[in-house]
Specification:
Radius of gyration: 18 Å
Strand content: 35-45%
CATH class: Mainly Beta
Structural class: mainly beta
Number of domains: 1
Number of strands: 20
Helix content: under 10%
Distance between the termini: 34 Å
Length: 282
């Protein structure tokens, strides 16, 4: 489906900050800070839109499973299902807010998903823009009668001038799982993580603030409710092979993600979890 035909909501703050959110997957696919002309989120020119598709770019929601670590398809089902708008206002003066919800009962999903993850829940996504900042918050409520367990992440594709001239700061001293080295665990000893090629790492016990540095600008990434962080760039071989990438896209994007992977969240009946990622353009 063309992007122009996919249902989406645009939100605008009084200061000019704005964002676009697709109803399919509750996926933020554009964020332009106040006073800026350039989008700080990357979306591939070959991205696919519509029911059942996850847009290649923006901020996909990984829930109730991150990656392949569980019985569900890659990154779970939240990013490929239709969400519903709850409200488009509220918050402090000058902010623009959007709240979407995903209410699910186990017997409403395909049998293969129901058997793999047989839980009832309600999820809400808050999207908020103001000034130089974009914030996304995921709230999950267990509406069933038994405990549920999940992993989750926000998966933002940040637009960069050249990913291989970009570095991520704040990860020094952490251990990480490297998917490109058979899932082995290593210690990060670099003061700044320089992106030099394909990378697929989960950093455990990440701090609440990371920074992405380009030669002429920066991005501050704040996280709460998430214990881990993911750094991902597909590299040239993957962008050349995937139909929803344009060859060369690997240089135009970098993912720095708030995640909870190593220690899954467990919710008792009636319990709620909240995770937030806030990005500030500099």
């Amino acid at each position: 489906m063309p992007a122009s035909h996919a249902p989406a909501v645009l939100i605008h703050a009084a200061d000019g900050a704005r964002a676009r959110v697709q109803l399919d997957g509750a996926q933020v696919t554009s964020w332009i800070p106040a006073g800026a002309a350039e989008d700080r989120l990357f979306v591939s020119a070959r991205a696919e839109y519509g029911a059942g598709a996850s847009v290649r770019g923006g901020i996909p929601i990984c829930f109730p499973q991150f990656g392949p670590f569980g019985p569900l398809p890659q990154h779970g089902f939240a990013r490929t299902t239709r969400w519903r708008v709850v409200r488009e206002a509220g918050g402090d003066p000058g902010e623009a807010r959007l709240v979407l919800t995903h209410r699910d009962v186990a017997d409403a999903r395909p049998a293969v998903e129901r058997d793999a993850w047989p839980h009832a829940f309600t999820a809400e996504l808050l999207v908020q823009v103001e000034g130089a900042a974009l914030a996304v918050r995921l709230d999950v409520l267990n509406t069933g009668d038994s405990a549920l367990t999940f992993t989750a992440a926000f998966h933002p594709y940040f637009a960069v001038g050249d990913a291989f001239a970009t570095s991520v700061h704040g990860l020094a001293g952490l251990t990480y799982r490297d998917a490109l080295r058979d899932g082995s665990v290593f210690l990060e000893d670099a003061a700044a993580l320089a992106i030099t090629g394909p990378i697929d790492r989960i950093y455990y016990g990440a701090p609440e603030v990371l920074e992405v540095h380009e030669p002429d600008r920066s991005l501050r990434v704040e996280m709460s409710g998430f214990e881990d962080a993911v750094v991902w760039n597909p590299g040239a071989a993957i962008t050349a092979a995937k139909r929803d990438f344009v060859p060369g896209d690997e240089r135009r994007m970098l993912c720095v993600e708030a995640a909870v992977v190593r220690r899954p969240v467990s919710l008792a009946p009636g319990a709620r979890w909240s995770g937030r990622q806030r990005m500030i353009a500099g």
